[in-house]
Each structure stands twice: as C-alpha cells, then as structure tokens.
Amino acid sequence: GYPIAGLWASESNIYGRFGFGISGETVFAKIDVRDARFRAMPTVKGEVRFADVDTMEKVAPVVWDKTAEKNVGMMLRSKADWDWIYDRRRIPGFGKRKAFCVVYRKGNEPLGYAAYRIEHRMNAMHSFNTVRVIELIASTTSAEAALWRFLLDIDLAGEVVHHHPKKSVLLWMLADPRKLSFEPYDSLWVRILDPIKALTARKYAASGEIVMRLVDNFLSSGGGTYLLRADDEGAAICEKTTRLPDVTVPISSLGSIYMGAHYLADLQRAGRVDENRPGAVAKIDTMFPISGVHSFLPEF
Hints:
Blueprint: E1 4-8, E2 21-22, E3 25-32, E4 47-50, H1 53-68, H2 79-89, E5 100-106, E6 109-119, E7 122-123, E8 126-127, E9 129-138, H3 141-152, E10 157-165, H4 170-173, E11 180-186, E12 188-192, H5 195-201, E13 208-215, E14 224-230, E15 236-240, E16 247-250, H6 251-258, H7 264-269, E17 274-275, H8 280-287
Parallel strand pairs: 9-10, 13-16
Antiparallel strand pairs: 1-12, 2-12, 3-10, 3-11, 4-5, 5-6, 6-9, 7-8, 13-14, 14-15, 16-17
C-alpha cells in the first residue's frame, strides 16, 4: 500500500482526527507595486517572452521537473495532470478572464514561466488593476527574479497577488519588504499510513537513532514503537522495537514534520508531543531538517 497520503483540507477541523497533520503552509501574498524596487537584482542573462498554450505545453513540464528536483515537497505532475491543466485552458470562458503566459529562457533553455490574469479596477479615475499570478515556477534565482520583475512592472497595475510558498526569496529581493504582505494558511496535509516505508523513503540531515512511540487512534497498523536509525549518508532503516520510547508522537504530528516544514519542538510546546528522554526532540529536529518546502499545488 501507499506509505503516505496527502490532501488539501476542505475543512481544517476535520482531518486531524483521521491522523492528518499540517505538513506545509502557504500564504496569500499581496505586493504593492508602487516603488516595488529590488534591493539588488541578480544577474539576468536570459529574457522573458510571451508564450502561447502550445508553447507552454512543451515548456512548462520541463521547467516544473527541473524545479521539483531542487524543492522538497514539490510534487511531480504526470502527463494526465498536464493534459487536464491545458484542457481547462481550452474551454472558452473558463477561469473568468484570459490568462497570459510568459517564459524565461537563457539561450534556448527554458528556466522559468509564469501564468497570470489581469483584473481591471479603477480608483479615483485611475487604473488600479490587480495582476493575479496563477503560477510562477522558476528553476534558478535569475529566472525567478526576472519573472517577478516582469510582473511587478506591468503597466496600470496597482498590486500583484499570488498564492505563495511561505518561504520565499521575494521578501528578501524587495528593497522595502513592507511592500509585501502575507496572509498565511495551511496547504498540504500529510497522513503517515506505513511508518516503516515512510521513514525509510526519505533522507535525513544528521546521523543518529531515535525510538518513537507512534499513537494512531484511527488505524491500528500505524501505531506502535519504532526504532529509526540514520547513517552519515542520510539513509535510514526503521523497524518495530520493544525498547522504551524516547518520544511519544501522535501520527498527525509525525505527518506535520515529515516534509520538513515544521519543528517537532514547536509541536512539543503546543502539547502535541511527549518527550520521554531529555534531548530527544532536539535530536529529531536535527535529523528532520527544516527545508524550503514547496508544498503547495498551484494549478492553472
């Protein structure tokens, strides 16, 4: 069977009881484009050009796969996923307004793309349009900077809005970080179905061993006491054990740290983890590194 399950929760108060934990967060980002200068523009040797749907069908999967290789928690898209995305774009009137697409290339190599819509608004007889970014994917810092610069410089726009990863370089690119405002919310929820398969499938940042008692009130197969041992290469073995546990962890809390988006110490302070041996929680946090997890699933 599957080692983990993941979903976006339609109602956030439901899925915890089934063992799902918040494994990633995203934000609704709003950028005031007035004087939204960059502190330092990375060297950009490529260019941004408009692209039609036929071009995007070829380019977007390539850029997505390149970017996914570098981002923990960014899911691969199958051909069926891409077919569904572009079939939607061919439906007349779908999505309220026409979407525009641009591609960043360095030479002939596509390294990033963005899709966006423009929502027309007036403010005191002046255009104050909203540029709604549907998706921005970049495999390099230069590509990301160039695409954001393009979007922030669109004529007659007052703001750019985007469902954005919680950890973003955009905040650090802007000369005035207050031009960017965030409204955070949960994105990907993860449920560990098979602890042994799930814990051996991922890499670890530090070697060591830990004994975890997992509490699963929904699936009897998920509970039990497990020994997790990681080596210097980041590979691990996991097996059931009769040893006394170093920590007692609800299965939902394990789901929350699995993708590298949260510290177990934060869950401990919230009363969602019991530390049975001093230092065990800190040890787990060194083994499960916090990453720039890209656990949101933009679709356009």
